[in-house]
Design goal:
Domain Catechol dioxygenase N-terminal: 36-102
Order of helices and strands: EEHHHHHEEEEEEEEHEEEEEEE
Domain Intradiol ring-cleavage dioxygenases: 174-299
Distance between the termini: 50 Å
Structural class: alpha/beta
Low-confidence stretches: 8-15, 152-176
Helix content: 10-25%
Number of helices: 6
Strand content: 15-25%
Family: Belongs to the intradiol ring-cleavage dioxygenase family.
Keywords: Dioxygenase, Iron, Metal-binding, Oxidoreductase
Radius of gyration: 23 Å
Shape: globular
Protein name: Catechol 1,2-dioxygenase
Mean pLDDT: 82
């Protein structure tokens, strides 16, 4: 069967019904002083992009709808919400790029035993408050059980010494129990449930937070509307974000996920990895918290 945008010749071979030389002319327009990486990737991008348009018989009206979706995502994006990044997330593009980046590092021999990475997500904010070891990132009265995540930072591979490091352990954030980050919820104070965590002298970290809940991609933007048009649910399983840094090591962007969450197998941004599942265990002897979770991070040398 011929693809849409193609017609079959007398010999049965597929023959394009559109200008067969057009894409090559666009590729050839790249000049000799083009950026080396762009010069490498643009031919593939253009062939796939033009091939898609031919395959589906893309019309001008449909193209304008797509352009407006991207434009709206750009207009909505701020330093508190990356709507364009959210579009990439629900299309699986950020997760795929994360897989490719990790595979390239693994093949280079520099990422062999490190904790798996995953997506940064659209709600990251820099410059969160500095939190000492054992401190709290709750800046408002919680409406969900408290939980102190803890663990340690080790260099990879752990089996070769497990050397600890101190300094800034990571930047951490999570949605509140109502499924909203603080920039989405006027009832929460600025930077609620975010912090830059410091390790102790042995490389361990500990912090009080709120047990996370699942949350949905906001329905008020193009990402949410696209999910609705695709008959897809908007939910991400409960998770905690970490960006883990230390001098001499590669920064790690990752998340840990509540293995009991109902959406653990159908994350709408496809970012869950088995190695990042955690269990929230009952905590005893601490009147500040009902649950605890342990997770150790391993970093690879830069």
């Amino acid at each position: 069967m011929a693809l849409s945008g193609e017609e079959s010749g007398a010999d049965g071979a597929a023959k394009t019904k559109y200008d067969p030389e057009f894409t090559d002319r666009v590729i050839a327009a790249t000049g000799p002083k083009a950026h080396p990486r762009l010069k490498e990737i643009m031919p593939s991008l253009l062939r796939h992009l033009h091939g898609f348009a031919r395959d589906v018989d893309l019309t001008i009206a449909e193209l304008m709808i797509g352009i407006e979706m991207i434009n709206e995502a750009g207009r909505m994006s701020t330093d508190k919400r990356n709507e364009t990044g959210m579009l990439c997330d629900i299309l699986g593009l950020e997760t795929l790029a994360d897989e490719i980046s990790s595979k390239l590092l693994f093949d280079s021999g520099s990422f062999e035993a490190a904790t798996p990475s995953t997506v940064l997500g659209p709600f990251y904010r820099p410059n969160a408050p500095l939190i000492p070891y054992g401190g709290s990132i709750i800046y408002a009265a919680p409406d969900s059980p408290l939980v102190p995540p803890s663990g340690e930072m080790v260099d990879a591979p752990v089996g070769e010494g497990g050397e600890r490091f101190d300094g800034e352990a990571g930047r951490r954030r999570r949605a509140d129990a109502n499924g909203l980050y603080e920039q989405q919820d006027v009832a929460q104070p600025d930077m609620n449930l975010r912090g830059r965590l410091q390790t102790d002298e042995t490389g361990r970290y500990a912090v009080y937070c709120v047990r996370p809940s699942a949350y949905g991609i906001p329905p008020d933007g193009p990402s949410g509307r696209l999910l609705e048009l695709l008959d897809r649910h908007p939910y991400r399983p409960a998770h905690i974000h970490f960006v883990v840094t230390a001098p001499g090591f590669r920064a790690l962007t990752t998340q840990v996920f509540d293995r009991e969450d109902e959406h653990i197998l159908d994350d709408t941004v496809f970012a869950v990895k088995d190695e990042l599942l955690v269990s929230f265990e009952p905590r005893e002897g601490d009147d500040k918290a009902r649950w605890t979770v342990e997770y150790d991070f391993a970093l690879s040398e830069a």
